[in-house]
Amino acid sequence: MVEEERFRHQLRVRYQETDQMGVVYHANYLNWLEITRTEWIRDLGIPYSQLEEAGLLLPVTEVQLKYIHPARYDDMIEVHLQIIDCSYLRLNFEYEVYRIRDGLLLVSGTTHHIWVNRDWKPIRLNRQMPQLYELIVSKQKKR
Asked: Which of 19, 75, 102, 119 is catalytic?
């Protein structure tokens, strides 16, 4: 990922997120990605609750994760998020999850999303909320 284009969010691994082996259970990484996406949208100046009030939803349609090293209880981690592709209908992110104390890359992956209304019908973000669309396009990874 290009350093300056990444959004970063830090979390501490909670005991309840670990399994019997003492490592973070694999599904918890998905929660961390969602938390980071929510904070990214808030950082743009539009809390996710405002999107929902406007009738916009952004469900996940695809997930790909590569587990490289485990996180453990009480580790401080940092999730890096970057837009890799966006259109008026779709929004795709790339992630890297690092352990802060040693900078070790733990997990990398992507999520794909589609903008829908409350009836789960696809919508055009550029028509529904043009100011958000322009903000998102401006943050897209430069190719």
From this structure: 19
